[in-house]
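Pasting as-is:
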Amino acid sequence: MNIDLPEIEVDKIEDLVLADKVIQLLIVVEAVLEQNRQLQKRVQQLEAEVARLKGRPRKPHFTSSDRSVSRKLLGNKSEWNKSSKKDKIEVDQEVELAEVKECECGSREFRILRTREKIVQGIIIRRNNIVYRGKEKQCIACGKVHNVQIPGEIKGYEFDSELRSWVSFFKYECRMTYPLIYDFLTGIGIKISTGQIANIIMENSDKLIPAWTHLKIWAIKTAKYLHSDATGVKRKLHGSGKIINQHVHFVGHKFLSVFKITKRYNSAEIERILGKRGVRRPYISDDASPNGERLEIKDKQLCWWHEIGLYLKLEPIIRMNKKVLEEVLEELWRFYEKACRYGRDPAECLKSELADLFIKLTNKSTGYKQLDKRLCLTRSKQERLLLFLQYPWLPITNNEAERGLRKAVIIRKISGETKSKQGDRALERHLSVMHTARKQGLDVFQTLHGLLLGDLSPFVLTAKKLT
């Protein structure tokens, strides 16, 4: 809603009583316009709900970058320079190029000027069906029967271990649906069904229980601090088609990702996921109600980006209030920059400066009612917003959890709902193992394959730790 209001220069009004009345009038106008804006949003929500109940298609939503207050860009990004990739590419095969043996003049003596080398990356995707044959024999002398020894990794399976690992990789790392995996495999000559693909996923999920349990207990126990967040996920019951609303939780840090699906999102569920040792670690999150006072964690740090985002949601209409909001945002971003600098170099003088700056900023009275209320709410969170002054190594944003949940959100958008409890467990186990492997700098497929075969210990997922 855009309303052109006449610009009134209050500072130039000589009558102080009149100037004060004008300011009070502008405050009332801003409050009325804010109420009108909220009513318009409510009307739009109700119209969308009516359209949904009538089965009408949802209107397209386009996010706009035209905001009343734009976010300030922080810091200077380092320039990107292209470097040679030859030292980073692993070579699997070497081919000697044909060289001239004799010159046209008849000479066989040459001087080497330089050696040419070119790396070409490629991939081999082909069917590899194997027939295992063997003869069962019976001893003529004693009658003992000697059976053929089938390799353990294929015993009881129709597909080899590598194909079974690729199915999980396609599903949770490449985010392919069952029909897409089916099309890919049948396209190269594999005889398989979507039901068999689902069964492979469930079998692999059971084999990842030791690795997921290791992350859930040992990795959280030894963590220096933990990020946490949650997002919605649904389960569609097979047969009835009933939809159950659930939540997928992320708990982790720079080298760890643990996912867990629960029916509820509250403090008790978070404590259950963290465990007795996890609740003793400093905890970074947003200020949603499950992360509030009921959460039995002593050291809790709020995300500063979430906090500043609450100010960016204010949409003043009167120019005077817009100017005040811009000034406050400038001070908030300045505080954020200094807080980041404190994390890199925790000087005692900067610590005192940040504490004083926070008190000065949140005690400011601007005359813009919504902004003053927001500053008061920020002041009430002082203990949780300034915990990083006590632990300088503690991150002041919850971006690690936001990025961690991105994979689960993308899978939810592509594949839709899970179909059973086993599907929930498969999602959380595969994402935990594969996301952690990537953070640890491991080859994701080889790590997954090794864990499924039992050739790798789950401790490979916790080799790198926070120091």
